[in-house]
Amino acid sequence: MYQLFAPSALALLGVNLGVILFAVKEQWQLPTILTIYLVQSVIIGLFQAKKMLDLKEFSTDGLKINNHSVEPTRATQWKVVLFFLLHYGIFHFVYAGFILSAGRPNGLDVLVAGGAFFANHLFSYVMNRNRPRKKLPNIGSMMFFPYVRIVPMHVFIVFGALTAGPQFGLVFFLILKTLADEAMHAIEHYNDTLVG
């Protein structure tokens, strides 16, 4: 069961709220906001790859490579991680091109917020990596999990929240993204663990 006040959840909430406050105070433009969350998404992907490589035992139920079921071996583990890094990397490269076509982000803001998110995800990784699990992790599910956290960016862009006014759009996106972060953190770190 998810603990609302777990240290890693509170740290994630704190970083997101800090970014929201600075974004509103400094009136960040869309390219800066989306670049920061693109950087966070890349950080999430890198930590997810590390988590998959850390696995000593894992399930491959439902996972197929070249339309064939695979065994939970070290070779399978490396294939999954390398495929994930390639696909996730291409996705983010294309996404970065789309974001940068909208304008130039503020490099210092991206660096500071990106550093805060890196520190937060490192803290979460260290806090949660040795938590006992109720069930064997499925490496196929782990490979797809980070994509779920990107949904708020797509919703924001597709529905053009900024058309309702810069401040409304900014706050709408940042709150939506923060809620998605907290929900995904809860699912990833607490639903399949023995301790809450």
Sequence of strands across the biggest β-sheet? 1-2
- Pairing-aware structural class of the strands and helices? mainly alpha
Radius of gyration, in angstroms, nearest whole number? 18 Å
Order of helices and strands: HHEEHHHHH
Approximate shape: globular
Strand percentage lies at under 5%
DSSP summary, beta strand count: 2
Give the termini distance in whole angstroms.
5 Å
Largest sheet: 2 strands, antiparallel
Average pLDDT number: 80
Low-confidence stretches: 191-196
Residue share in helix: over 70%
Tally of DSSP helical segments: 7
Number of domains: 1
Task: Give a description of the structure.
- By secondary structure, this protein is an all-alpha fold.
- It contains seven helices and two strands; from the N terminus they run ααββααααα.
- It has helices at residues 7-26, 30-54, 74-100, 107-128, 139-148, 151-159, 166-190; strands at 64-65, 68-69.
- Strands 1-2 form a two-stranded antiparallel sheet.
- β1 (64-65) and β2 form a beta hairpin.
- α2 packs parallel to α4 (107-128).
- The protein is globular, with a radius of gyration of 18 Å.
Task: Tag the structure with descriptive keywords.
single chain, 196 residues, mainly alpha, two-stranded antiparallel ribbon, 7 helices, 2 strands, globular, disordered C terminus
